[in-house]
């Protein structure tokens, strides 16, 4: 008969890890969305002046996330910042997300036809009114699928924080594996949890996208 | 607050070893891309057929590859297969994991690219007397590869970045692995990983530049 050392407590432990994964994703996306929005608008509206910003953000996209974690973690110790590993994970993931989101926002803003913005300005809207009422609503519809992809990507990339010592879902499964020695079963359960989390986010996003499309 | 002396001179002495590691990294990524493209083409065709089993396998592969972390996929191959008595080396597990991941992502790109190839092209090819396989090989795939060329180069950069995960399953001859080896010997974490980061950046830029050059040479007309 099929017997296993996997107990309910282990499942709770895994779910705890999943909760950490979700928290990390949430904070990183919050940070990334905010920073990415600002940077993306800068990149789209002042392309020349913000060129150095693009170079800096490009570095975050061309260096492996694992190395960014290690680097920032050691930098933290060198400088003497006293923050937890969890915060380090959030910050690195947040900057990483911001680097990607900047390009998404930039693409979204540039997809709004210039004639439309001229029309709104000639109707008497100020620069910021035009940005707020014309550009952002249209750009957000273009950028949303990209943003959703980014959320899913960041959720999967949180698995790498195990390297700096945070017990999230994958690390939790690793801990259980070392105890009960049934890697295939435990890893499959962990994978299933990841799969379900991704699927739920993707479904919610698709629903929101449909709701937005109604008025267009 | 800041009482740390950087030791770059000693670190730079490790550069030849790290460059050798960078070559392994590049090789692994390139191999995984070659296999990934081949598998992705097969998956794309499988997802287009009406056969339910083939469709199921294709869709299942793509959705698992895209909805779970690549590190998890490498873990399954390394620890999971090990528990079934199939012991694979960490390099093989890494290569297989990245290939699995690449194939999933590329298959999705290819599906988009396939939609962009006009349906009339197939019909024209078939009416010229080509078999279905010939039409795919000589008409569809060349056009498809041209459409997905930039996503492909992007995925190559991704593959290079993903090879850094090998160190978690104990690979010690790729760039991250070599760096980690030096790191545990000397505890000069920041210096060694900075050099690794620079090397990764250069590899990524080299790939992007090569892709630009190739696109310029290949797609001139």
Helix content of chain A: over 70%
Alpha plus pi helix count of chain B: 10
Distance between the termini of chain B: 60 Å
> Compute the gyration radius of chain A: what is it?
21 Å
> What count of helical segments of chain A does DSSP give?
8
Chain oligomer state:
heterodimer
What string, H for helix and E for strand, traces the elements of chain B in order? HHHHHHHHHH
Count of distinct structural domains of chain B: 1
Molecular shape of chain A: flat
Mean pLDDT of chain A: 90
- Architecture of chain B in CATH? Orthogonal Bundle
- Tell me, what's the shape of chain B? globular
CATH class of chain A: Mainly Alpha
Q: Could you state the CATH homologous superfamily of chain A?
A: MetI-like
Low-confidence stretches of chain A: none
Q: Helices and strands of chain B: which structural class?
A: mainly alpha
Largest sheet of chain A: none
The share of residues in extended strands of chain B comes to under 5%
Q: What's the main sheet of chain B like?
A: none
CATH topology of chain B: MetI-like fold
CATH class of chain B, anyone? Mainly Alpha
How is this structure best summarized?
The complex is a heterodimer of chains A (216) and B (221). With 216 residues, chain A is an all-alpha fold. Chain A has eight helices and no strands.
Topology, pairings included?
The complex is a heterodimer of chains A (216) and B (221).
Chain A (H helix, E strand, L loop, with lengths): L7 H38 L5 H12 L2 H15 L5 H26 L3 H9 L4 H31 L11 H12 L2 H31 L3
Helix pairs in contact in A: 1-4, 1-6, 1-7, 2-4, 3-4, 4-6, 5-6, 6-8, 7-8
Chain B lengths: L7 H5 L2 H34 L3 H16 L2 H14 L6 H27 L2 H9 L4 H16 L1 H14 L12 H12 L2 H30 L3
Give a structural overview.
The complex is a heterodimer of chains A (216) and B (221). Helices cover 81% and strands 0% of the residues of chain A. Chain A is mostly helical and 216 residues long. Chain A has a single domain (8-213), classed as MetI-like fold (Orthogonal Bundle), CATH 1.10.3720. Chain A is flat and about 75 Å long. Chain B is mainly α and 221 residues long. In chain B, helix 6 packs antiparallel against helix 7 (132-147) and helix 9 (175-186) runs antiparallel to helix 10 (189-218). The termini of chain B are far apart. The interface between A and B is large, with 40 and 38 residues.
């Amino acid at each position: 008969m099929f017997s296993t050392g996997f107990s309910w407590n282990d499942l709770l432990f895994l779910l705890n890890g999943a909760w950490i994964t979700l928290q990390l994703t949430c904070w990183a996306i919050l940070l990334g969305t905010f920073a990415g929005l600002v940077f993306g608008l800068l990149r789209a509206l002042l392309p020349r002046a913000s060129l150095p910003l693009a170079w800096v953000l490009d570095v975050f996209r061309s260096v492996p996330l694992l190395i960014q974690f290690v680097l920032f973690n050691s930098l933290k110790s060198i400088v003497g910042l006293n923050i937890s590993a969890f915060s380090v994970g959030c910050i690195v993931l947040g900057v990483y997300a911001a680097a990607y989101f900047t390009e998404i926002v930039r693409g979204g803003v540039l997809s709004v036809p210039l004639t439309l913005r001229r029309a709104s300005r000639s109707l008497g809207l100020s620069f910021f009114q035009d940005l707020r009422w014309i550009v952002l609503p249209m750009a957000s519809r273009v950028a949303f699928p990209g943003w959703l992809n980014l959320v899913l990507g960041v959720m999967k990339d949180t698995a790498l924080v195990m390297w700096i010592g945070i017990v999230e879902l994958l690390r939790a499964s690793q801990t259980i594996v070392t105890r009960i020695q049934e890697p295939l079963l435990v890893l499959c359960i962990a994978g299933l949890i990841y799969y379900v989390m991704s699927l739920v986010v993707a479904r919610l996003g698709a629903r929101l996208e449909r709701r937005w499309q109604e008025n267009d | 607050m800041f009482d740390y002396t950087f030791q770059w001179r000693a670190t730079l002495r490790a550069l030849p070893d790290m460059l050798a590691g960078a070559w392994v990294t590049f090789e692994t990524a390139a191999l995984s891309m070659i296999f990934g493209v081949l598998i992705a083409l097969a998956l794309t065709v499988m997802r287009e057929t009406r056969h339910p089993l083939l469709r199921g396998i294709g869709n299942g592969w793509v959705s698992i590859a895209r909805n779970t972390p690549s590190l998890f996929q490498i873990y399954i191959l390394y620890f999971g297969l090990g528990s079934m008595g199939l012991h694979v080396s960490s390099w093989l597990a890494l290569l297989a994991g990245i290939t699995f991941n690449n194939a999933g992502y590329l298959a999705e790109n290819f599906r988009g690219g396939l939609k962009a190839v006009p349906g009339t092209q197939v019909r024209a090819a078939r009416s010229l007397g080509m078999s279905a396989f010939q039409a795919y090989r000589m008409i569809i795939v060349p056009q498809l590869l041209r459409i997905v060329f930039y996503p492909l180069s992007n995925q190559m950069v991704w593959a290079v970045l993903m090879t850094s995960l090998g160190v978690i399953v104990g690979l010690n001859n790729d760039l991250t692995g070599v760096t980690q080896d030096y790191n545990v010997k000397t505890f000069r974490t920041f210096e060694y990983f900075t050099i690794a980061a620079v090397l990764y950046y250069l590899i990524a830029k080299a790939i992007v530049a090569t892709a630009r050059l190739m696109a310029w040479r290949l797609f001139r007309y």
